[in-house]
Write a structure and sequence with these properties.
The structure holds two protein chains of two kinds. Chain A is 67% helix and 4% strand. Chain A is mainly alpha-helical. In chain A, α3 (66-74) links the parallel β1 and β2. The two termini of chain A are 34 Å apart. Chain B is built from nine helices and ten strands. Chain B has helices at residues 47-54, 76-81, 98-108, 113-127, 142-154, 172-187, 199-205, 223-230, 235-248, and strands spanning 2-12, 20-31, 35-40, 62-67, 70-71, 83-86, 160-164, 191-196, 208-213, 216-221. The chains are: A mainly alpha, B alpha/beta. Chain A binds chain B through residues 1-2, 4, 7-8, 11, 14-15, 18-19, 208, 211-222, 384, 387-389, 391, and chain B through 11, 14, 52, 55-59, 76-78, 80-81, 83, 85-96, 100, 104-105, 107-110, 112, 149, 152-153.
Chain lengths: 391, 249
Amino acid sequence: MRSAAITVFLKELTDAFRDRRTALMVLIASIITGPITLVLVAQFVSGLEEKASILKVRISGQENAPALVNFLQRSDVEIEPAPKDYEALVREGRLDAVIVVPPDFDSRWLTGEGAKVEIFYDDSRTDAGPAIRQAERLLRAFNRETGMLRLVARGVSPDLVEPVKVDHVNTATPRQKGAFLLFLIPMFAILSPLLGGMTLAIDSTAGERERGSLEPLLANPVPIVQLVVGKWLAAWTFASLVAVLTLGGFVIAASLYAGKRLAALMAFGGPEFLAFVAVVVPFAAMTSALQMLICTYGRSYREAQTYVSYLATVVSFVPVIVLFSGMKDSLWQLAVPVLAQQVVLGRVIRGDVIAPVDWLMPSLMAFLLAAVFVGLVSRLLRDERIVFGRA
Amino acid sequence: MIEVVDLAKRFPVKGERGKFVDAVRQVTFTAPDGAITGLLGPNGAGKTTTLRMIATLVEPTHGSARTDGFDGHLKPAEVRARMGVLSDARGLYGRLTARENIAYYGALRGLPADRVQVMIGQLAEWLDMGPMLDRRTDGFSQGERMKVAIARALVHDPANVVLDEPTNGLDVMTTRKLREVVRHLREAGKCVLFSSHIMQEVSALCDSIVIVARGRVVASGTAEELLASSGRDNLEDAFVHLSGETESA
């Protein structure tokens, strides 16, 4: 004789897999959108970098500043004359930045009267940022070179005006630079079990009652806990499956960038995938149990659906809070569901070392809560008011 | 055999503290094996709540319901194992076939898979549902759904069968089929408890009738005994007369 929990588990899975419309929705919503978002963001970021890496400036009135043009040419900068209507083009967002040289530039520069140039830009457009900073940097470098040459010509050591020399040593590994971008993957990893377990959690609780199949089910000589455990196992399996597929999608998306400039940014391969699965599967045990608990209160499928989407909203706020609060890592966070997963997955992404406690504590917590929620659902289903009184 | 003694159920009124509704006030009757017992009463008389207490789905406030000697309150698992219930709610799983719906309950009751398939074959023959067994139930008519729900309740060949308004919403042909099945169950020596608010239904089928009104048993006996005790010459008048008595009381 098979345990009733296994019977319920197998039935719920069969039932769920036959629901093609929902299956398709889950597939599109979770498995495809995640990687697509990642690719789009990656394109955007690489677009910025490309813009910045090609040294190119647009100048209006370059004939007024032969010395500046000479400097730029020596620095391997491509000079492009700005079109006549550059003002309008910048406003429309079709040009990033234009260096404007006034007609009296050369005469003032030669006499050392303080020549002026303008950088014309619109900094409300974030993607114009690199071009603006580049123009600034080039002008500053030109300034410094000119200034130094003039000091040397007067017999003054250039070190006097530049007492501190600044060299940049950036310790961020390419991986850590990519963490900004890869903050997306933990977010999807945390939300995907919620999305995946949703349908089954609703269908096996509020749906069962709405359909009128709960009462006959409870009339079977099976302890209610076994029924609930079977349903929970099915919801957990589905949630984990969707999470694993979503993460698999990210592995594929990241592999598209292998060997390219962004490869370092997109380090999400086998080891990261396994670490993520190890964290997300226990987490899914908790989320599906919680979803079932919430849905048991729902009088109808639709009501339960509303409750569950509130839960998803609350959960999706956590990564945002972590991102903007500048929270420092500490042990207590590992005991808080969602936050713990966010923190640990973030470490995996950054390539930090994961200690056993980083996995054990959030997972034990998740299983503990799952057990509590399953117990509560069983208790609710023993309550006449829940089973009959609210339909 | 189902024995009900002094059964009562009081529900709290939702949203009003300290207020109660007495769904069942005092119900006593015995449904013997090898007989069809009809529970007759107008809507809201407390039939469904009584049957739910017998099926151990609702805890009685007072009194007891015993099935084959097992008290529903003390030994619910024993009672459930010996009972097949067609409850007021009889939803099926639309994405599963009729066969899978029935087999699910067989498996939940711990029957071996081959035994379940034999039972399904037998029930399909009784209920005339052979061709629809392997179709998904979401396209089924009400009559077809009812057949599946009945087969599901009988898959473990229970000694006691409780049917809550089984003919509700069925056409004449299906109703006839159902009566046939109920008689079949009696011949097999089962205890059949059948509820309805339709006089003709009960008089056509039942060996003994228990009339319930406002949560109380107002009369019981065979159709002839009821006619005699009410002094009327047809059962419908007797029913109206008997259930009306408590309303004026």
